[in-house]
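Board notes (copied after class):
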Amino acid sequence: MNNSISRFHLSLLGAVLAAFTTPAFAAGGFSFLYGNKSLDSTAWWPVESQREMAFSFEYQGAEWPVTLLTRYAFSQGLANITESGFTLKVRGTTTEMGLGLRKYLTESRVRPFIEAGLISVKAEMSAEIAGYSASRDDSGIGLWVGAGVSARLADTWSIGLLGRISSADVTLAGVSGNAGGQHVSAFITQYFY
């Protein structure tokens, strides 16, 4: 029985490797994204507006109607609140790991698209005052949806804009809130074939 399971897993691994190394199946790209993430102000004030960087990888088989998409996104917001001669330094960060699907709506050089998927989000809020600091973090699972447009500059490069909405509930210091948000990013993609 163990030998049968091992042979099955090896056969499956071989099929996957063959699919990813066969030229007819090798279509995809790496993207770098930069923009802004807006979070719920009730839970995230004063760091509800955060700068965001992301990296994504997309892969499409020769006959696939959609593209498989993975994304890693990191956002951070910093704020100082001064009161009675003391300064409270607040930092909020989120990390999103996503797996989903993207559908290009045309095959022209300018291609609008829609996308959706699952995300795992880690959120952290920290504060420091007079040399004392404290932080709280939590993780959650959620969803994202997005839409954008990609414009080809050359055979292997494109630029574009992406808007997304993500949602995942977390609890920080006893307060529940959404660690997702509204994302607006510009991106550049290098394709491979």
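Comment from the instructor: DSSP finds two helices and ten strands in the chain. The CA atoms of residues 94 and 123 lie 4 Å apart.
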